[in-house]
Design brief:
The protein is mostly helical. About 75% of the residues lie in helices and about 5% in strands. Helix 7 packs antiparallel against helix 8.
Length: about 280
């Protein structure tokens, strides 16, 4: 009888998963298109569900020992999420449709497993928000403000280094050359990725208090912004000394990767210092 019950639960889970895949197939297709788009700010989106699954996997022993106490109110979360998805599908607003997955998943956990299991899996569920691309109009607005902020402070640093530079919009003009801080150089990609990474590092660290976890989260954002400013300064100085052609191609790509590496190292230093 026990094996029959387990098999029935597995079948029920598989059916629900299949139904959700069918219902959300247009949204999932949209997500994958945004993740794989050229110069995407959400190329990390493919990894986010795997991270959530990893969090559940390291909790598997504790979860397997918990008693299932289904709570009927979970159905309201499910209905709310599905209604939001339906409205989003009719209006072709994929952003809110994608976010509606979170209350649906949360509701399913509450309805079939209970509040205790929900609390234990809440982080893994909420972490999925990092794979949801913001609307393009929002990204444009944030990108503009971030690139102007980065250009302003990079210009300040360049002048402090003894290199005469004048800021004209998002263009840093020097004596023999200039550097344009474009949207892709705003640092938004690194910011989103570092915030996700900082969140998972803070959550998994058993040595950090709740306050210190919050500090790590905000430190991840600060490190991403600072590293991007350093990148712009590096590109500007290199362009002024060796010429604009020297900064094109591989060096430009490599500097983008170094932004993330430098920010990650800075974040790990912060974590080590406050543990």
């Amino acid at each position: 009888m026990e094996h029959t019950g387990i098999r029935a639960n597995h079948i029920k889970t598989a059916v629900i998963a299949l139904l959700l895949l069918i219902i959300y197939s247009p949204t999932i297709s949209w997500l994958m298109d945004r993740w794989s788009a050229h110069d995407s700010y959400y190329s990390h989106g493919f990894l986010v569900p795997l991270v959530s699954l990893y969090v559940l996997w390291i909790k598997r022993a504790k979860l397997s020992k918990m008693r299932l106490k289904p709570a009927a109110w979970g159905v309201w979360l499910i209905l709310g999420g599905l209604l939001l998805h339906l409205a989003s599908a009719l209006l072709r607003v994929y952003f809110t449709s994608a976010f509606s997955m979170i209350p649906v998943i949360a509701g399913l956990v509450v309805y079939f497993c209970g509040v205790a299991v929900f609390r234990e899996t809440l982080f893994a569920i909420l972490f999925l928000a990092f794979m949801m691309p913001l609307p393009l109009v929002t990204i444009v607005g944030i990108t503009f403000k971030m690139k102007m902020f980065a250009a302003y402070w990079a210009n300040k640093v360049i002048n402090a280094m003894g290199i005469r530079a004048v800021l004209d919009g998002s263009v840093i003009k020097m004596r023999t050359t200039h550097v344009i801080v474009e949207d892709v150089c705003s640092g938004l990609r690194s910011l989103i990725s570092l915030l996700a990474l900082g969140t998972i590092i803070a959550y998994l660290s058993s040595k950090l208090t709740r306050l210190k976890k919050v500090i790590v989260f905000f430190a991840a954002g600060v490190m991403a912004i600072l590293a991007n400013i350093v990148r712009i300064v590096f590109m500007a100085v290199t362009s002024e000394v060796w010429g604009a052609n020297f900064t094109q191609g591989p060096l430009h790509t490599l500097s983008g990767l170094l932004v993330f590496v430098v920010a990650f190292i800075g974040l790990m230093i912060v974590v080590r210092e406050i543990e």
